[in-house]
Write a structure and sequence with these properties.
Structural class: mainly beta
Largest sheet: 3 strands, antiparallel
Number of strands: 5
Oligomer: single chain
Number of domains: 1
Shape: globular
Helix content: under 10%
Strand content: 25-35%
Distance between the termini: 40 Å
Radius of gyration: 16 Å
Length: 86
């Protein structure tokens, strides 16, 4: 039986959304539970912008008990799927 009130993931279009990172079109996985930083492909940021001296520890559901130290970078990200908050 199908429940019309179900608001979870129905198909890939619910979690894979178009985005622009620094003006470059790509796709992203929507994670409404992420209140932290984003992880982006290094091809989307200029190498000279990467801050190796300002790194952060990241771990995900598939990392087990391990964590990865990643450099930081400031990016511009936008999507037609993001709400505009003023």
């Amino acid at each position: 039986m199908f429940d019309d009130s179900y608001t979870g993931v129905r198909n890939d279009m619910d979690i894979i959304v178009p985005v622009f990172v620094n003006g470059k079109p790509t796709t992203a996985l929507r994670d409404t539970g992420n209140l932290s930083m984003l992880i982006v492909d290094e091809k989307l940021v200029p190498k000279m912008s990467v801050r190796h001296d300002e790194s952060v520890w990241c771990s995900g559901v598939f990392d087990g008990s391990g964590a990865h130290r990643l450099p930081t970078v400031v990016i511009q990200i936008r999507s037609p799927h993001f709400a505009l908050l003023i």
